[in-house]
Amino acid sequence: AQKITQTQPGMFVQEKEAVTLDCTYDTSDPSYGLFWYKQPSSGEMIFLIYQGSYDQQNATEGRYSLNFQKARKSANLVISASQLGDSAMYFCAMREGWGSNYQLIWGAGTKLIIKP
Amino acid sequence: DVKVTQSSRYLVKRTGEKVFLECVQDMDHENMFWYRQDPGLGLRLIYFSYDVKMKEKGDIPEGYSVSREKKERFSLILESASTNQTSMYLCASSFRGDDSNQPQHFGDGTRLSIL
Predict the structure, then answer these.
(1) Residue in A57, A96, A102 to test binding to B, most B beta-carbons within 10 Å
(2) pLDDT tens string A23-43
(3) What is the DSSP letter of B85?
(4) What is the C-alpha to C-alpha distance for residues A9 and A50, in angstroms, rounded to an integer?
(5) What angle do CA B73, B53, B47 make, to 5 degrees?
(6) Strand, coil or helix: what is A10?
(7) What is the pLDDT of residues A39-85, one digit of tens each?
């Protein structure tokens, strides 16, 4: 079974509109963390934002925010006021548990294209 | 800022060659990772290392080996390159902290073509 599901393979959004990228996850571990990364066409993976399972507030970083709905096991990325430079692949990833489990489980990604 | 440097952005090699991909990080991170990325398949972990001379297999280790002789350097080795190893290879590093909030930081990637 997929542990991280990104249901939108691709999205087109008009510049300056807000964007929501979906991510659902599956874990039975009460301790986990969720990460979002951006990958422009040049290839580098850029860390955007993190949400811990015990965090009371939704994470925010500048124009990025995370809509974390724990009961629904979803961690959607919201980009406010989209810009042409936001066009990229976006990946959701999860780390389960604490301690020595350092691996991330990755979703398949969503390709976001911002239209001028 | 964290800097993870991969030795080549683009590399072309021949079938059967031994190929070395090098990765260096400058943030004293304990953990280092090698992934390959193929269209539609996302990122798949090949190997990772949580300390010098330590290594753990990831999801797809077959056909690959790794070396970590120094903390800052993690090498991926294709023992005998094959065309199905043509891919984008990404190196990452992170702190080992017990908290789950340590992100992995990535290099720019190496696009490897095996002819």
Answers:
(1) A102
(2) 999 999 888 999 999 999 988
(3) G
(4) 22
(5) 70
(6) strand
(7) 999 888 999 999 999 998 999 999 999 999 999 999 999 999 999 99
